Structure formats: structure tokens, C-alpha cells
Amino acid sequence: RGKAEGRGQISVFQPAMAKYAVLQLALERELRQALALQEFRLVYQPQIRLHDTQLIGFEALIRWYQPQRGEVSPIDFIPFAEQTGIIAAIGDWALDEAMAQVQAWASAGLPVVPIAVNVSALQLSQLDFADSVIRRIRRLPIFLQDKIVLELTESTLMQAQSLQSLQVLTQAGIAVHMDDFGTGYSNLALLSRMSLSKLKFDRSLIQNIPDNHAHQQVCRALLDLARALHLEVVAEGVETMAEAQWLNAQGVQYAQGYWFSHPLEKEQAQRLLV
Ligand code: C2E
Ligand code: MG
Ligand code: MG
Ligand code: MG
């Protein structure tokens, strides 16, 4: 009986595994195809200075329009792209696209603001990543080389192997912002040794902050930390005027979120550059 059960379990287990593997292969093939068929695009979410709402930059966010499925959220394919390693090619595409955008705006005579490109942990862990990014950014005209910024999440940066790559990037003058700050577990000693440019406070901390006393206290403590480390702060996911006002009153310099603007198609983003 035990044997039969064991066999039964295996026969139930295997098809599920096979099904998962097949799905995985299919999605990987689709992502590769998506690159070849140019199904990805970047949208640009404005980042603004709180005290005067002036535009200070954009965050580039990837979008995948798959003809059969429609728009697929990055939340649904980025983690998968990381598992299969295809994130490296997608990440290269995103960086090239953001660089091309910066150049296109400059060529049109527009005042260019920095574009922040999201970088995943798997990309940063690749040995040649930092050098390859530096090489590519250096191909831009000098006056545009500081217009590409990298966003790395707190959990990525806190991985032991990250510090080396981070140092190579920041020593080359590339600005790195810490994304989703407040959701992971920062090693504060390590944080003080990183030459970051900005901390992005995660949306989960910002949401309803005018009504959430606990979040207010955490936010104030993290702001003190940012000040001690001479880091400017971008509040993510600001959805209401009350949140924006509270953050401004606390001395948060910058914000991003639906209250100011949803991510924009490149043509709409361009209209903000005047
Ligand atoms: P993230 O880098 O933290 O980006 C912020 C996310 O919050 C974006 O979601 C943005 O559209 C959304 N957001 C902005 N303001 C608000 C707001 O006021 N309220 C709410 N509820 N959401 C807001 P999106 O575009 O779906 O991207 C999700 C995540 O996917 C990103 O989080 C990032 O981790 C990843 N991602 C997006 N593009 C790329 C990329 O090119 N490369 C990599 N490696 N990851 C990317
Ligand atoms: Mg980001
Ligand atoms: Mg974020
Ligand atoms: Mg996030």
C-alpha cells in the first residue's frame, strides 16, 4: 500500500513539475521573442521637488504589450525574468532605451532631466555589469552622462556581493538611488559606506501617512538617518495632497506618485520638458 501511495504521489507530482517547466520554457521564449519583436517600451513617471513641484527627473518603468494577452505588468514578468536570467537582456534593453531617450530629447533642444533606470539583483551580481554600464554611458555626449541614474532596491544592495559593483559604479560618477527603502533590513554600517545619491522611501511607508502615527514616527526616524548620511529623499507612491503636504513639512525634498502624475508615455513625458 505504501508503495502504491508513493508511486501515486510521484505520478501526481511529475506532471505538475513538467507543466511548470513547460510554462517556464514558454514564457522564457515569449520574453526573448518580445525583445526581438519590440514589444517592450518604457513609460516615464515624473519625480518632482516638493516645495515647488518642479520636475527633477523621471523613473523609467518597463511595459510589455503582448498582442494576445495585452498589457502584462512588470510585477508579473520581472521576477520570472530574473529566475531565468533573461532579465540581463531586458535590463540592457531598458538602459539602451533610456539612453536613446535622453539623446533624443537633447537633440530636440529640450532641457533634459535625469532618467532613473531600475536594475535587478541578478544584473548587479553579474561580474561585468558595472563595467558594461560605465562603458555604455560613456558613449553618451559628456553633458548627458549624468542624465542616467540607476535604481537598486534596498534588498539588492544589502547582498554581500553588491558592494564591489556599487563602488565601481559610483566611483565612475554614476548616481545610484536606493529603491524601496524601508522594506528590507538595512545594515546601517554598510549603508554609511555606500556612496548613494538618494533614498527612495517605499510606498508602503508613505501610504496614509497623515493618519498613521506609527508610520510618521518611522518616517521621521528614517529622515534623520538620511540627513545624517547626507542623502536626499524621494517619497514613492504619493497619492494624496495630504501626504505630499505632510512630507514637505517634514523636509522630504522629492516625491513621485499618482498625486503628481502616473507614469507617462514618452510623448507625454516630453511635453513636461520646457
Ligand atoms: P518600483 O521600481 O518601486 O516602481 C514603482 C512602482 O510603483 C511602479 O509600478 C509605479 O507605476 C508604481 N507607482 C508609482 N506611483 C504610484 C502611486 O502613487 N500609487 C501606487 N499604488 N503605485 C504607484 P510598476 O510600473 O508596475 O513597476 C513595478 C515594479 O517592477 C517596479 O517597482 C520595479 O521593481 C519593477 N520594474 C519596472 N520596470 C523595471 C525595469 O525596467 N527593470 C527592472 N529590473 N525592474 C523594473
Ligand atoms: Mg524603482
Ligand atoms: Mg520603488
Ligand atoms: Mg517597488
Automatic annotation (TrEMBL):
Domain EAL positions: 24-274
Protein name in UniProt: EAL domain-containing protein
Species per Swiss-Prot/TrEMBL record: Chitinibacter fontanus
